[in-house]
């Protein structure tokens, strides 16, 4: 659990409890939260102690196990009925991030398919949660390496731009978009990362830059409104962002402001990449119009810290995500390789076979 290295793991199973890095306190303070009850995991996800679609999925998987551990009945049917209630509590925490629902579904499937006593089901659930965590870490490393195959080839090292945090803190470790950045840095192809601050919660400023500084990756923080200027000045070779949910046609929901960056990148003929695991693709949704967009409390935009920044009686609109249309996306980088949005159906066919 040493924060001085890039090997940061935001969700860890240790001594019969879950250890979370409290991402609301970074970068000012590196602190952890110990979770041993499902209701505490629900609150941690809601309040963004843990955030980032893949990390939420891992946390939810452990949340299912913690909830299962609290169920007293030894009768299988009654146990599964109570486990469904636990699952519903976790589903209601964050509506946009599809990895949450994917992980819950996988955990429930395991519970129903495990033959044996209730105690044996509980043991299997813990093993499944740990497997989800391990798989995500391996997936992110693959995404990072696959990203190298599609990044632009330039005479000089690359300067990349990212929006929000899709790094180790948002996953089981290593990251998706920041995984591509890490792999480029490791291979000597990266000169610098430009990080949007990402209003209103400032994940780019607080989290992405923290990860980069800890690892020694050159990073320049810019405000969200500076992206167009930086592209016009020739400072950006490519954009790499993460995703919270991708529709079957490639429309992608990510942190609010991502759509703006994609439009600016298109205007300057700069490639715009989305890096995400296949589990982030929701093949049940035809287009991004069907993706539910979470709206968060207005306090996130009417104050910074304890300081209120607007007059009383102002009305507020605070969507946490926007949807970038597929036609603005150069490629979606997955653990299986980079695909044009129109090619995502190939993955669905392979999964169905």
Automatic annotation (TrEMBL):
Catalytic function, reaction form: 5-(methylsulfanyl)-alpha-D-ribose 1-phosphate = 5-(methylsulfanyl)-D-ribulose 1-phosphate
Site, as annotated: Transition state stabilizer: 164
Residue numbers binding substrate: 51-53, 94, 203, 254-255
Coiled-coil positions: none
Gene3D superfamilies to which the protein is assigned, alphabetical: translation initiation factor eif-2b, domain 1 (1.20.120.420), Translation initiation factor eif-2b, domain 2 (3.40.50.10470)
GO biological process: L-methionine salvage from methylthioadenosine
Pfam families listed in its UniProt record: IF-2B
Active site, UniProt feature: 244
Pathway terms, separated by semicolons: Amino-acid biosynthesis; L-methionine biosynthesis via salvage pathway; L-methionine from S-methyl-5-thio-alpha-D-ribose 1-phosphate: step 1/6
GO MF term (any one): S-methyl-5-thioribose-1-phosphate isomerase activity
E.C. number: 5.3.1.23
InterPro entries according to UniProt: IF-2B-related (IPR000649), IF-M1Pi (IPR005251), IF_2B-like_C (IPR042529), Initiation_fac_2B_a/b/d (IPR011559), M1Pi_N (IPR027363), NagB/RpiA_transferase-like (IPR037171)
Keyword list, A-Z: Amino-acid biosynthesis, Isomerase, Methionine biosynthesis
PANTHER family tied to this protein: METHYLTHIORIBOSE-1-PHOSPHATE ISOMERASE
Family according to the record: Belongs to the EIF-2B alpha/beta/delta subunits family. MtnA subfamily.
NCBIfam families cross-referenced by the UniProt entry: eIF-2B_rel, PRK05720.1, salvage_mtnA
HAMAP family: Salvage_MtnA
Functional description taken from the UniProt entry: Catalyzes the interconversion of methylthioribose-1-phosphate (MTR-1-P) into methylthioribulose-1-phosphate (MTRu-1-P).
The name this protein goes by in its record: Methylthioribose-1-phosphate isomerase
Species per Swiss-Prot/TrEMBL record: Moorena producens 3L
Lineage of the organism: Bacteria, Bacillati, Cyanobacteriota, Cyanophyceae, Coleofasciculales
């Amino acid at each position: 659990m040493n924060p001085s290295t890039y090997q940061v793991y935001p969700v860890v199973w240790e001594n019969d409890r879950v250890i979370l890095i409290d991402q609301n306190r970074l970068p000012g303070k590196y602190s952890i939260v110990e979770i041993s009850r499902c209701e505490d995991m629900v609150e941690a996800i809601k309040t963004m102690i843990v955030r980032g679609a893949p990390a939420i999925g891992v946390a939810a998987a452990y949340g299912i196990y913690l909830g299962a551990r609290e169920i007293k009945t030894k009768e299988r049917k009654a146990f599964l009925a109570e486990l469904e209630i636990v699952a519903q509590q976790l589903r209601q925490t964050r509506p946009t991030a599809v990895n949450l629902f994917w992980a819950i579904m996988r955990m429930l499937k395991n519970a129903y398919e495990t033959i044996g006593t209730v105690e044996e089901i509980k043991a299997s659930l813990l093993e499944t949660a740990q497997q989800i965590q391990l798989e995500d870490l391996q997936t992110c490393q693959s995404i990072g390496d696959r990203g190298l195959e599609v990044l632009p080839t330039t005479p000089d090292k690359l300067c990349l731009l990212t929006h929000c945090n899709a790094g180790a803190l948002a996953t089981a470790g290593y990251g998706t978009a920041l995984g591509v950045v890490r792999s480029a840095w490791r291979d000597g192809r990266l000169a610098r990362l430009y990080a949007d601050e990402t209003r209103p919660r400032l994940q780019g400023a607080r989290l992405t830059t923290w990860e980069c500084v800890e690892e020694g990756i050159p990073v320049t923080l810019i405000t969200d409104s500076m992206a167009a200027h930086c592209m016009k000045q020739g400072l950006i070779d490519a954009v790499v962002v993460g995703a919270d949910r991708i529709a079957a046609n490639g429309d992608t929901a990510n942190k609010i402001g991502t759509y703006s960056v994609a439009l600016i990148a298109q205007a300057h003929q700069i490639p715009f990449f989305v890096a995400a695991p296949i589990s982030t693709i929701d093949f049940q949704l035809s287009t991004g119009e069907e993706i539910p967009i979470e709206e968060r409390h207005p306090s996130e935009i009417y104050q910074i810290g304890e300081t209120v920044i607007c007059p009383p009686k102002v009305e507020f609109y605070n969507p946490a995500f926007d949807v970038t249309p597929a036609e603005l996306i150069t490629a979606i980088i997955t653990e299986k390789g980079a695909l044009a949005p129109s090619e995502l159906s190939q993955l669905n066919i392979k999964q169905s076979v």
